[in-house]
Amino acid sequence: MLSRISSLAKKYAPEYIEIRHHLHAHPELSYQEFETSRFIQEKLQQLGIPFTVMATTGVVGLIRGRNPESRVIALRADMDALPIKEENDLPYTSKNEGVMHACGHDVHTTCLLGAARILQETKDEWEGTVKLIFQPGEEKNPGGASLMIRDGVLENPKPDAIIALHVNTILETGKLSFRGGKVMASADELYFTLRGKGGHAASPQLVTDPVLIGAHLVLALQQVISRYNNPFNPSVLSITAFNGGTTTNVIPNEVKLMGTFRAMDEEWRFRAHGLIRKITEELVTAMGGEADLHIDVGYPCVFNNEKLTAAAMSAAKEYMGSENVTETELRMGAEDFGYYARQIPACFFRLGTMNKEKGITAGVHTPTFNIDEDAIETGMGMMAWLAVSVKY
Description:
This protein is α/β, with parallel strands linked by helices. The chain is 35% helix and 25% strand.
């Protein structure tokens, strides 16, 4: 079966590279993936794979092998793009101004479509059912995964496990990486509004300066990480925007701050929310101002089931060779795949896409992001192989 999947991946890779070009050239923002969804539906229909639509643009296909109720494995891809103006000069550069597949979701979707073709063609040669999940909105709260789960993607049939890949721009093409346990962080957005009493900058004794209050707050919040958090527990609090005032001689009435809080421990995560609120309220009040704080609770951390991930890593070594399978580094980035991982055993692995010799080194979320497209063959073949070989 391994050689069969590998040969089919090699055979169909050129066609799916062209599919990737189409997707890359026609990106759509989160929850607006209408044309992308239609394209995926057409491809599944051409393959004779039944599917349903949920969460408005999400697509869920089912491929039934022999003894279809014996095991159910879900494969997931995200399909939304980012509000970034592409700077690549390519035949398939984005045609949608200001929108770009800068995080590789076009690659993820392509690999899953390619895996679907391989699995459909070989369905008489493997046992179980494979559920294909093409989800919207990974890049924007509340996360398309949460909407798909709400609409029943993990039911009828319920998967025994779920597997997904993500491009890795610092890992060479032809290599994969896996990690059991904690893999990626939770991500919460922080929005502060600080109010004081503005006035002439030359008469500071007559005002309550929200700019000064904000400056103290930015510094004070750092103790959440440096003094309350266990230093062996990865966590980040970054204030990323400080906005207020319009000129040099007027102290404003109000300033606004924004930031992000990330953690890899759910108990600490919500304890930290309380600390952020306490520090904000007490410091601002002590300095004579008022504060509103909104914490937009985002994605949970991604936790890979250790048994499933070990099995997937072993299968990947069979397919790729041990020398081409490494361990994924911890990352404080976030992924709404964490929602699936809270419900069923999950494995989120990385697909190498870097090629220094070809000059392909740009990172994700940059206007020059691109991949070495030899990775398409690896990705589609690996997803198909894991779907039929991993036992859980």
